Amino acid sequence: MQRAISTCLMRGGSSKGVFLRASDLPPAGELRDSVILRLFGSPDPRQIDGLGGADVLTSKLAIVGPPSVAGADVDYTFGQVSFINAMIDYKGNCGNISAAVGPFTIDEGLVQLAPFNGAETWTQCVRIHNTNTGAILRATIPVGIHGARVHGATTVGGVPGTGARIDLDFSDTQGSVTGRLLPTGHLYETVEVAGEGEEPEHVQVTLLDAGQPTVFVTASSLGMPVEIRADEIAGILERSPSLMRRVERLRGACAVLMGIVESWEDAERVSPYTPFVAILSPASDSRCDITSTVVFMQSVHKAYPVTGAVATVAAALLPGTLAHSVLSKGSCTGPLRIAHPTGVMEMEGLVEEEKLVKASITRTARRLMDGNAYVPWSTWPVE
């Protein structure tokens, strides 16, 4: 015998996740995490006995429920479900999965469908309280009489085909985890990083928290060419386990400085998702303003995380940061165009007096399936 749990699988941007209603789960805590890990088939690198996709971009969780704060339509908790360890990292948010929360909320009837106003483009704004960071995201969703629309002409790098345009506003995400745009108060700094059986090295970084705490470092600081494409950075990292360990040691040292963990050795175990590491180089061609490749969950991101793009636009528009120093022509007059391993992502942004005023992006999302998922009664016994 098994317990049935109402489940929805959705793509949001270039990620895919399992969406669950909070009311269908135990309260937050050890039992809820055990149920979720069993649903995903974790820990197991293949997640063969669960719904997880055995990839960091597809082993993601969204728990959606009624709002707990004023000014929100819904609560949303993000979890990065590890397939290596029996853990779920709730320390940050995923912007791509956030793109699917609005359509899920509308289609599940968690908010009332906006009345038709006669406009050619009928949209609905859903105010999403992200419980991980406390921020309220605003998603503008195209709708029809049957709910969220999926057909449209919008493209997303790393996603085949086109879909209906979803506008996401992340302007409220400054200091998402650490409470400050610049967690250490510095535009850039030199951090001491443990060596691998060698003397410590010193690396210049910018530490910034908007959307998601992110460590910015130049490709040349890691021994790569000054000018290099994002897919080339990804390829070098994927072929070099020693370089990936070096990046993880850097991430751990910066996580300590940002107040996320107490020692760099704890970062992979305690906070594998947060912070991100963004490896920068100048624009590779006229289609982009900056080149960046992100490492998260001890893996190379195959596209670009939306919350990482929020941090990137904030860093690029803030004079004195490493991102601003490699920005094409030293300025950006329109959306920031970020070249990543599988395309180009555009993020609108505005920073004034070291404050994030605007951060918005366009995504698509689609419901892929819904129904019941099952966990053994032994995982979640009858009360």
What does the largest sheet look like? Answer: 19 strands, mixed
N to C succession of SSEs: EEHEEEHEEEEEEEHHHEEEHHEEEE
Mean pLDDT: 95
What sort of overall outline do the alpha carbons produce when their principal axes are compared? globular
Overall radius of gyration:
20 Å
Q: What would you say the CATH architecture of the largest domain is?
A: Roll
Report how far the terminal alpha carbons are from each other. Answer: 15 Å
The SS-based structural class is: alpha+beta
CATH secondary-structure class of the largest domain = Alpha Beta
**If helices are DSSP runs of H or I spanning 4 or more residues, what is the number of helices?**
7
Describe this structure in words.
The protein is α+β, with helices and mostly antiparallel strands. It folds into two domains: 2-172 and 365-379, Diaminopimelate Epimerase, Chain A, domain 1 (Roll), CATH 3.10.310; 189-353, Diaminopimelate Epimerase, Chain A, domain 1 (Roll). It is 19% helix and 34% strand. It is built from seven helices and 19 strands. It has a 19-stranded mixed sheet that branches. The protein is globular and about 55 Å long.
SSE topology sketch:
Layout: E1 2-12, E2 15-21, H1 30-40, E3 60-65, E4 74-81, E5 88-89, H2 95-107, E6 123-130, E7 136-144, E8 147-148, E9 166-169, E10 189-193, E11 201-210, E12 212-218, H3 230-239, H4 241-257, H5 267-270, E13 276-282, E14 290-296, E15 299-300, H6 306-316, H7 322-326, E16 336-340, E17 343-352, E18 355-363, E19 365-376
Parallel strand pairs: 2-3, 4-6, 12-13, 14-16
Antiparallel strand pairs: 1-2, 1-19, 3-4, 4-5, 6-7, 7-8, 7-9, 9-18, 10-11, 11-12, 13-14, 14-15, 16-17, 17-18
GO molecular function: isomerase activity
Keywords: Isomerase
Pfam families: PrpF (PF04303)
